[in-house]
Specification:
Layout: H1 23-44, E1 62-64, E2 70-72, E3 81-87, H2 92-108, E4 114-120, H3 125-135, E5 140-143, H4 148-153, E6 160-163, E7 169-173, H5 177-188
Parallel strand pairs: 3-4, 4-5
Antiparallel strand pairs: 1-2, 3-6, 6-7
Length: about 190
């Protein structure tokens, strides 16, 4: 296991997506994503007033905290709505969309009702901190050295998750400020 004072680099090439998931998982995930996109589109036009769909549960995983120790997926349950986005410095697709994540972080990181965090997959604390500062990403940065969040949720890097207080994924998609904000506003009214 990796020590909490240092983030171990996972051997091998940079991996921008979740491995080891079968075709059924990909098709099921695509269907759920389409349902969520349809809800967001219709909500933006005033045609939907109900809650956003439930797309699954946040997988049980331990993420390394910035100082030392770790954060569990259970830590987000019952408290705040969580906005979580994993990313990878070495992912070419991520680099083009990092300004979107930075915009989303500036919009949401200081909201006391939210737990906003970006999750660095691979890398180490020193280079990650420099990268986050350079990109202007605000909020908590956690580390997922083994990809447990990405693989467990069946997502690729720079896919934003909005997780309700019960640990259910209610949004899975791009770090789009408007779409994420719509889901959050709908979830604020839920107990």
């Amino acid at each position: 296991p990796a020590r909490t004072s240092e983030v171990a680099k996972v051997p091998g090439k940079a991996d921008c997506g979740a491995r080891g998931h079968g075709r059924r998982t990909a098709v099921g995930g695509a269907v759920l994503a389409l349902v969520a996109i349809a809800w967001i589109w219709m909500a933006g036009r005033g045609r939907v007033t109900g809650p956003p769909p439930i797309l699954g549960r946040l997988p049980e995983c331990q993420l390394l905290a910035p100082g030392s120790g770790s954060v569990s997926a259970r830590d987000w349950r019952g408290g705040k709505i969580a906005v979580i986005t994993p990313w990878l410095e070495e992912c070419p697709d991520c680099m083009g969309r990092m300004p979107d994540l930075a915009d989303l972080s500036r919009d949401l990181a200081r909201d006391p009702a939210l737990a906003f965090c970006s999750v660095a997959y691979q890398g180490n604390r020193r280079t990650t901190r420099r990268f986050v500062d350079r990109m202007g990403i605000q909020g908590t940065v956690l580390f997922d050295t083994q990809g447990a969040l990405m693989y467990g949720a069946g997502i690729s890097t720079l896919t934003t998750l909005v997780v309700d207080r019960a640990g259910r994924i209610r949004y899975r998609g791009a770090p789009d400020r408007v779409a994420v904000r719509r889901v959050i506003e709908a979830l604020r009214t839920e107990p």
